Amino acid sequence: MEAAAARAKHEAEAAAAAMGRARGRGRSGSESRAIDRDDSDYQHKLLRKIITAAVRAMREADPRGLFLNPVTDEIAPGYSKVIKEPMCIRTIEDKAEEMEYDHLSEYKRDVRLLFANCIKYNIGKDGTWFRGEARRQEKVWKEEDGKRAASQFCASVQNIRGKENVVTLGG
Fold first, then answer.
1. pLDDT: is 45 or 74 the higher one?
2. How many angstroms separate the CA atoms of 150 and 129, rounded?
């Protein structure tokens, strides 16, 4: 898990450094709109990169692959009747790659859904271990991976815009 966190930090720092490159200020109206569009595209790509790094850390925090793949009714009888919006690490990863996340809050929602689904489905004594593992991994995400990714993203966005953005992933 530490290796994944170090890689995520390195990738986010590299993205932040790249953001320090020429971002013009004091432009004409049309130039300003073009820069705004460029900034938006750049922020979107940066968001994808940071979420991808955070997902990589999530994979490492899940050594048994419990949350890696979609859950089927074959694996978990009646799952589709209990869980109306399934989520897994692979789906989050695919959404990040396809740039389906416009905001960190969307990624945060999917991660919380992933853990909430596990807790909701695995009721009773037989589900104790699964619920415990979901809580453990969610805690790791909140305390380490998510906050680090949010912090890196906000710092990078500040470099572009010079504005303060307060975002937390894990909290």
1. 74
2. 29
pTM for this prediction: 0.68
Structure tokens at 75: 């694996």
- Going by C-alpha positions, the residue among 165, 121, 114, 171 that lies closest to residue 146 is 171
Considering only CA atoms, which of 69, 65, 60 is closest in space to residue 90? 69
Torsion of CA 9, 152, 18, 13, to 10 degrees: -20
- Higher-pLDDT residue of 153, 29: 153
Rounded to an integer, what distance in angstroms lies between the CA atom of residue 164 and that of residue 82? Answer: 41
Decide: 149 and 51 in contact? Cβ < 8 Å: yes
Tally the residues of the chain.
171
Instruction: State both tokens at 52.
Output: 């991808």
Question: Which of 42-46, 107-111, 144-148, 167-171 is modeled with the greatest confidence?
Answer: 107-111
Decide: 61 and 146 in contact? Cβ < 8 Å.
Answer: no
- Confidence at residue 170, expressed as pLDDT on a 0 to 100 scale: 55
CB of 86 closer than 8 Å to CB of 114: no
Amino acid at 97: E
